[in-house]
Specification:
about 325 residues; five-stranded antiparallel β-sheet; globular; disordered N terminus
């Protein structure tokens, strides 16, 4: 369950635990095919000019082949260095994710992250709070690459720090983190964050949503939407957020996700979409949370097929037994 690696077309999955991605490897393979084709054409050209052209033409082709082989070796070494560095960065990022979901009597929690690249901007967290409460966090840096990875790490650290200062005030946590981000960074990146405090005894979830995709609370008679209560973090210094609260009864399920889940595209360019995402989750309600998220991910994989992956996918599911 939590912590087991799972192979898919995306590479390994972080499920409160381990991963790899194949982006560097795939790019290297594509460029290798191009170089092999170029070498094949040069060899064919050499045969032709050797039969029909002057010796100088043959020498020119030989020089081109030598340069190609030398460049290929240099690029291969450079890719090895980059791949090793990104692998280390990925391991460090993976270490920032919780090793396991909290074990709470009467509750079931699960989380998983599938990155699109070697490093990623999505994140989730479970932060223990006084009185047996737990902060539940899901976020998405609106950018890609190493910069987004650093921004993600900073945001995660600031959230944990602010959580200890305001254990029962989600809006104050986002306001504090927003101010620190704008003070300590000078970039055009920003991050969406849904920060919620679960009180397992009372069954309540107090939350502030900073521009993140709405979470959906599936109840027996309706679906409650945890919509944004303010804008994304890292945009405006004087931003503010509201704290709202919902109550989970037995059998209720809270479903959180990042936009990579709904923006996943098939070969024909169509998106997986919110309707398909929610209907898949609803079809598996009542099962363990890890099975709900696996069913959603499997549906995304089947829909995308062999299309390239452009964004991270993160899911977090909370259910009251």
């Amino acid at each position: 369950m939590m912590g087991r690696a799972m192979e898919s077309y995306l590479g390994r999955r972080y499920r409160t635990g381990g991963i790899q991605t194949r982006t560097v490897v795939d790019r290297r393979q594509r460029e290798s095919l191009v170089r092999e084709r170029r070498q094949e054409l040069l060899l064919n050209a050499r045969d032709v000019v050797q039969d029909l052209g002057p010796s100088g033409s043959v020498a020119w082709v030989d020089r081109q082949l030598t340069a190609l082989r030398t460049g290929t070796l240099a690029r291969a070494r450079a890719y090895d260095v980059v791949a090793q560095e990104l692998e280390v960065a990925g391991r460090i990022q993976a270490g920032l994710l919780p090793e396991r979901a909290p074990q709470l009597a009467g509750w079931d929690l699960a989380a998983t992250l599938e990155p699109a690249r070697e490093t990623w901007g999505d994140f989730y967290d479970f932060i223990p709070l006084p009185g047996g409460r737990v902060a539940i966090v899901i976020g998405d840096v609106v950018d890609k690459g190493a910069g987004a990875a650093l921004y993600m790490a900073l945001t995660r650290t600031l959230l944990r720090s602010a959580a200890t200062l305001y254990p029962d005030q989600p809006a104050s946590v986002l306001e504090t983190v927003n101010a620190r981000i704008l003070t300590e960074t000078h970039s055009e990146m920003f991050v969406t964050v849904l920060y919620a405090v679960l009180d397992p005894e009372a069954g309540t979830v107090a939350y502030a949503n900073g521009g993140h995709n709405p979470a959906h609370l599936f109840q027996s008679d309706r679906t409650h939407i945890l919509a944004p209560t303010g804008m994304a973090l890292g945009v405006l210094r004087d931003s503010s957020w509201q704290t709202r609260s919902v109550t989970l009864s037995r059998g209720d399920t809270l479903f959180l996700y990042t936009d990579g889940a709904i923006d996943a595209r098939a070969v024909d360019g169509s998106s997986f979409g919110l309707e398909r995402l929610l209907s898949t989750a609803q079809a598996h309600l009542g099962r363990p949370c890890v099975e709900i998220q696996d069913a959603v991910l499997d549906a995304i994989h089947r829909f995308v097929g062999g299309a390239p992956r452009y964004d991270d996918v993160t899911l977090l599911v909370v259910a009251r037994g």
